[in-house]
Amino acid sequence: MDDVEILDVDDNNSPRQVPLKNQDLSQLSFTVGDFLSLYGWYLLAVTFTVFLLIQQLRKRRSSQSQQDSVPQTQLDASLVTKRQEAMEAARRKMQEELDAKAAIFKEKQRQQEEEKRRQKIEEWESMKQGKSCKGHKPSESSEEASSSSTVLKPKTDKKPLRSPDYNPLMGQGGSCTWRPGRRGPSGGG
């Protein structure tokens, strides 16, 4: 492509040769070599300074991580210890609450047993005296003794459930009757 020639045509129609030149780049004759010759030492100093700063930062990070790792493990150990102590305290508190509830429950059970025993004794005593024990409440025992003038009427409103001549052994009807078993060989196999 260097061998390309451009011919200009003038008004007089005669071709003319013009060498190809980029005039914009000719003004930028400033090259990398010129840049390094002017600013090379400054560039070298800046590069060296940046390198030293990076080395210092790496040393500080590694020393901080080592210093932080020791207290971090100590903090972790103390944190774990505190958590375990808090869990133990919570467990002790829950166990004490459970023990208190169990004691209350046992006391209620004991009182109920004592009440049942006392009622049985009162029923036994009332049976010895000839009083009825059905529907007998301890609080009503004194009231019943004082109000003995009350007369109970037998209930004659209802009809008897069965006729007076009913005997279940006679087979008077119903669906439950005895039937002899089947004859023949057993069905087992």
TrEMBL record:
Biased composition (Basic and acidic residues): 82-128
Entry membrane topology: Single-pass membrane protein
Region (Disordered): 62-189
TM annotation in the entry: 35-54
Alphabetically ordered keywords of this record: Cytoplasm, Endoplasmic reticulum, Membrane, Selenocysteine, Transmembrane, Transmembrane helix
InterPro entries: Selenoprotein_S
Low complexity bias locations: 63-75
Compartment annotation: Cytoplasm; Endoplasmic reticulum membrane
Domain of life: Eukaryota
Similarity remark: Belongs to the selenoprotein S family.
Annotated protein name in UniProt: Selenoprotein S
